[in-house]
Amino acid sequence: MTASRIVCNPLDLPYAYSHVRSLTGKRSLSREAADPSIVLFRGTYFLFASMTPGFFYSDDLVTWHLKRSEKFPAYDYAPDVREVDGALIISASRRGKPSPFYRTTDPLADDFVEISPGTFPFWDPNLFQDDDGRIYLYWGCDARVPIQGIELDRTTYEPIGTPDALIASSTEARGWERNGEDHDPRQNSLLSKVIFGGKPMIEGAWMTKHGDTYYLQYAAPATELNTYADGYYTGPGPLGPFTYAPDSPFSAKPGGFVTGAGHGSTFQDTHGNWWHTATVRVSVNQTYERRVGLFPAGFDDDGTLFSNQNFADYPMIVPDHPFDPWHETFAGWMLLSYRKPVAASSSLPGHEARLAVNESVRDWWVAATNEPGEHLTVDLGGVLSVHAVQVNLADHDLHRTAAVPRSALRALEGHKRLIDATNHPTEYVLESSVDGETWTPLWDGRGTGVDAPHKMTVVEQGIAARYVRVTGHKTPFNAPLALSGVRVFGLGTGPTPAPTTDVTATRIDPLTAALSWRPVEGADGYNVRYGRHPEKLYHSWLVHDRASLNLSSLNAGEAYWVAVDAFNENGITPGAVSAISRHPAPAVKK
Fold first, then answer.
1. Does the pTM exceed 0.90?
2. Residue 416 region, left (φ>0) first, then alpha (ψ -120 to 50), else beta?
3. How far apart are CA 437 and CA 469, in angstroms?
4. Of 302, 265, 352, which is closest to residue 78 (Cα–Cα)?
């Protein structure tokens, strides 16, 4: 394990700022990127994401660079990139007018050429070339219209025949498709209630062929929810017939520092390892305030598609060789900063220092001034071995408090959204101390010009520290320093928690199981793993400070098993596997 091979979700990318005017007229200014499409092309990984003034590229899946481009529209959501006939083909989302296709054989040379103006409009496209050279397009982003697919002419990209309806929602049979925070309709978003009548969005198609089977993936129920996830169907051909996979969702992250793991792409690295990238949400300043996550993935011996999302926002190794996605990617460092004492130089009312260590990207500490030198200090409670610190910046009321050019705000008058393509450095000093008096720099960003909103600083061999301090010097738009998470990882000195006991798991309806367990003394939280086989607990849901969970993402008519693992800063203690009773399935349309 080397520091250069370790990442932490959300990925630290120079996410662009979007000026947004909502349907209600509310303005916001915050970072945004989502709907990631990643391909490996000629030894380089290319990442296209919504609301990005270009694309990202990487040689190792660890360090990403932004390549700015104006050769394809940055305002078209959900850009899709796939290799076809030795070139990259890019398309994106448009409603009301045809969606064009672009081609490049050298993306870094910015030689994108429009090869087709498009013949019909589509949203959330995904292009796929089969082994026989034929190409197919999948698209759809709607609460009522199913995801569709069609073959395209390999030269003109015009449709051949008529579209096939492939995937529609079935909330009576699939708990994870139900709308609402934690799948609770009472906690549904205003956008979903008003525009979509509370129905889930079915969107974000992505096709993967593994062996002789075609895996058509899709996202539901809504990008602004913690339950945003990806499921899949399988079929014998690129247009089916498709059968719903009961191990869906294969990508879901409803708990933890960042939540949501929907609308993404599945790809292989240079060693043949599978990965899944997906959208993770912030959705505070505006609905589409989102980030990108990366997760180890794969197919088991039975052909089941999975993603390993256990502790999926803790430091993760990106091995430089073929690996076991379940056992070789977790760095082994635990969170040392959760709800530890924290002090700040100043704070805005309602944005106190404690919000920087509560494991939620959706609230944050804000300094009372925008002067250089504002700082926040975490007290780990004792001298521990610190191996990594992830500093997560937040965007706090930038449209009101930041030094945003008036010309930019005036330009927003005629638009719902504008991208600010300017580089916005994040300059701060990260230090550690044993006694709170003598400080050791871990990273000094002053003068670097680095735009790093989720930077993780790694000290591979570890450093003894009790205190960790972040001191701001330059922030985007000269705004007050705002931190949604100062997350310190390493090794504690105490015992791991005892195993969970008295676990009860009762199916209360076809789609939900009520779980409870006896609280474990010294545990910071619990990782609930579950699945359709006692040895295939492929799904997980992380919770803090509670000993119960309504597992609301189940598929009707399926039996499930569950294990509740306890964890703290010293490690993880696996729980015993228990059966969840099967509930009679309702009569529903497949």
1. yes
2. alpha
3. 11
4. 265
